[in-house]
Amino acid sequence: MRKPDKLLLHSLLRYRKTTPYNSPASLTTSAAANPVPATLAVLSDLDLLDAGELTPTPRVYHGFITACAQSKNLEDARRVHAHLASSPFAGDAFLDNSLIHMYCKCGSVLEAQKVFDGMRRKDMVSWTSLIAGYAQNDMPEEAIELLPGMLKGRLKPNGFTFASLLKAAGAYSSGSSIGGQIHALAVKCDWHEDVYVGSALLDMYARCGRMDMATAAFDKLDSKNGVSWNALISGFSRKGDGETALKVFAEMQRNGFEATHFTYSSLFNAIAGLGALEQGKWVHAHMIKSGQKLTAFLGNTILDMYAKSGSMVDTKKVFDRVDNKDLVTWNSMLTALAQYGLRQEAVAHFEEMRKSGIYLNQISFLCILTACSHGGLVKEGKRYFDMMKEYNLEPEIDHYVTVVDLLGRAGLLNYALVFIFKMPIEPTATVWGALLAACRTHKNAKVGQFAADRVFELNPDDSGPPVLLYNIYASTGQWDAAARVRKMMKATGVKKEPACSWVEIENSVHMFVASDDAHPRAEEIYKMWDEISMKIRKEGYVPDMDYVLLHVDDQEREANLQYHSEKIALAFALIQMPEGATIRIMKNIRICGDCHSAFRYISEVYKREIVVRDTNRFHHFSNGSCSCGDYW
Asked: What is the predicted pLDDT for the residue at 12?
């Protein structure tokens, strides 16, 4: 047996003379009182027990267990457990509960379960410790499955039990239903007004997207803290309700609570969904004034916010300023370059990642494949797809979808079809959907019908493919076939998602739909668009009737084309925004080809930079050209 460290032994012997080991103060002797690491102290103390220098007591063993739980050293935890198992205190309920807690802290919930299963008598602490362990180790289903057994043993859950169960319910796939049942049980047991249970209820409902219930739980809290405010903000952010998230943040400030990096991260995610650049800049400035450091964690969310709000200049600035960039930082920048169609910059960025020795993951390759797809770099895309093998990465379904998109955008529809047939995994509806979208771009009805049939088989509830197929037939003048698709859509209840566009002006978001007359300044907006239309026609703009997918005469087709939502939003922005200011427009579906052409002319005639974010990418119009190079 090895000798304990002399200095440690001297310290322990001196400590024993002043404070007996079985006193409360001795519980953390090894973990806190000694200047050596807890794990070394525990092993040395076990040697002292074996040498007879220390008297074994439950408190001594509890001190060892506590030290292992704090250090999270599983190997030492097992040694302490083995030593305890051979002592007279084996089977002690208090120590067994401590062992359960220790193993959970060390990440070995299965060993905690074994201790739990071997206990002769399980009390409230036993059940709660194991439930909490499963919940904290991302095993929500196992945590929730313990509840019936606990109730069967005639034990009523306490506040800590409910807090852990609600945490598990928030992470569970059908958490809202389960969480509601746990909530009802908490009310029955009169724990629903407890501050910890109330906070857990708020977090659970927020994670399940039930913001009505989350808000109700928040309002009932007698004592609100930073955690509860952050949970509410985070919930609205995940729900995509950025406006409410910002309102809650303002209320949080008024109530005197300071924002943390979690608060700012949630806000930046919320703003990214809105694409509200000015509000994002305001929150960023607020963060700087508060003294928050630009860590990789915060930098990644800020970078993503600027990228999705249409400011590549600010995106690059944040990337350059982030210290200790991690893989997420590099991938986020790569994603931004891909979305903006900056294909050569994206390739250079990816090559820099490779040369820097950064560990590339599947997301890295998905980003560069997307960049190649958006930029028409077929050769490079194929090379990067094959390169995944060099990094021992197995392509996932998203990688196959992107390669199909790459080939399809380039017009290589037959190659895309062969690629799908050679896939080592079963093609999904998303794979066939990518081919169908390419057929819409290149007006190939034959391959499009084949791809659509596959999508209908795999995902009959998706409304997108029937609309795409209708568009293919309509754009090729096959009105009878288009009518059959329309009839099928009506019979199955499929409806096309209404197109809408929005623009942020002076921290207010203005939304428009096609031929919108609901805006208070509608008359002025339409007058402005007529003026715009006249000017760009003089410069060579000709409306592209191929994008009117209705069987009507040319005059009506042109009228339908002129009042798309993005054109109305642009007209309003030109009225409201100062001369020279960049205009940023968001759209919920793909930008129309005719609008794309019109915006190129408008950027030149009005000397404006116009950034449009649609569901697929960004288009940055400047001096009569677009960042996509008209390849989209």
From this structure: 35
